[in-house]
Amino acid sequence: MPVLDSSDPRASFREGLKVGIPFSVAAGLVSLSFGVVARDVGFSAWAAIIMSLIVFAGSAQFASVAILAGGGNPVAAIAAASLMNSRFLPMGAALAPSLPGGRWKRAAQGQAVVDASWAVAARPDGSFDRWKLFGTTAPQFLMWQLGTIAGAFGGDLVGDLDRLGLDAIYPAFFVAILIPELHDRDRVGVALAGAAIALALVSFTPAGVPILVASTAALWGLRRRAA
Amino acid sequence: MSTAMIWWTIAGVAVTTVAIKAFGPVVMGGRVLPPRFAGVIVLTAPAVLAALVATSVFADGDHLAVGASTVGVGAGAIVSWRKGSPMIAVLVAAAVTALLRAVS
Predict the structure, then answer these.
(1) Which of A24, A85, B64, B77 would be A143's cystine partner, CB 3.0–4.6 Å?
(2) What's the mean pLDDT in A71-89?
(3) Alpha-carbon distance values, A22 to A86, A139, A145, A226, B76 (Å)
(4) Domain encompassing residue B18
(5) Do B51 and A195 touch (CB under 8 A)?
(6) Is the pLDDT at B20 greater than 60, yes or no?
(7) CA–CA distance, B14 with A172 (Å, rounded to integer)
(8) In a 10 Å sphere around its CB, with 0-12 CB exposed, 13-18 middle and 19+ buried, how is residue A202 labelled?
(9) How much is the pLDDT for B99?
(10) Residue A202 falls within a domain, yes or no?
(11) 3-class state of residue A135 by DSSP
């Protein structure tokens, strides 16, 4: 099985850390807003903290909490979260050839995937530097927990989320991941198409569906000549 | 909503998230991705990220809406475009949004 570790895994991990640390501060602010939102909606501080610990997926966490807040039931909340998470299916599939070990080891390594880490670890030939991925994820995981704790317990101090503009943090975080990805015209086009598709669907499909359907814009890749 | 609903949701989201993140690595491990699929995969990130951004910036739940946060995110986008750190981009986005709300 072709496993494509770099010649110096430690160096790769450290490179990942370097990239991951600025993202992790942003992630901590996003998770802080999650902690506050979850409390606002009726979660106990511990529920918010445990959710961030065992889910570790921002869009899934926010989507499920939003459904509950809107009066939806757990099944709807879990469905919305899964639709948000569905992008990890093709991402995990792409990463798979670069992961050594048996099923369980690969399953465990797959848990380290978050958007920024996956994008950063991708090599031009389509393989992934898994140690760079791990290094990028590690600080984000840590700050995700610390931010949630701060938001969950300090929420009263924070007060009105909107007044502090905290609702802008989550989209700005994803913009910060997206922009370095737009290094050629194909990608800009696909991004615009994805955005347009999602916006067209948002008024009449359940949460998460716009994102899933928007991912089909990637099928443009079938028409590309070899990069 | 009840505490039970909250905990069932947390459990369900956790289990499905773990399963989804494990699925690709488990099922596609040991195989080489055909180059055509690789071309589609690498485009998945821009498509999905852009959709996430668009729906959180230009929509409020199930209807289209723009507001202070739209401008704030735009300011953060400029920071990112100018290769500023994500940390700064996020703080700028929040600050601009808060400022706009304070003065309007």
Answers:
(1) A24
(2) 86
(3) 26, 9, 16, 33, 14
(4) 1-31
(5) yes
(6) yes
(7) 25
(8) buried
(9) 94
(10) no
(11) helix
Q: Judge whether A199 lies within some domain.
A: no
Mutation to test the A interface, candidates B40, B52, B64, most A Cβ within 10 Å: B52
Per-residue pLDDT at A1 exceeds 50: no
Q: Tell me the pLDDT of chain A averaged across its residues.
A: 88
State residue A162 phi and psi, 5-degree precision.
-65, -40
Any domain includes B12: yes
Question: How many residues does this entry show for chain A?
Answer: 227
Domain with A74 in it? 9-160
Query: What total number of domains does chain A contain?
Result: 1
Residue of B nearest to A98 (CA): B29
Residue B87 touches partner A, C-beta closer than 8 Å: yes
- Transcribe B50-103 into DSSP letters: HHHHHHHHSEETTEE---HHHHHHHHHHHHHHTT--HHHHHHHHHHHHHHHHHH
Closest C-alpha to A112, from B87, B100, B18, B83: B18
Q: Which amino acid is at A183?
A: H
- A226 pLDDT exceeds 70? no
**Beta carbon pairs, A and B, within 8 Å:** 337
For residue B50 the two structure tokens come to 């852009």
| Beta-carbon separation of B17 and A59 below 8 A | no
DSSP class of B34: P
Q: Are the Cβ atoms of B102 and A163 closer than 8 angstroms? A: yes
The pTM of this model reads 0.85
pLDDT in tens, B57-93: 888 767 777 888 899 999 999 999 999 988 899 999 9
Distance CA A164, CA A98 (A): 42
Q: How far is CA A223 from the centre of its chain?
A: 27
* Dihedral sign, Cα of residue A87, residue A88, residue A93, residue A98: positive
- Phi/psi of residue A216, each to 5°? -70, -15
**Is residue B85 assigned to a domain?**
no
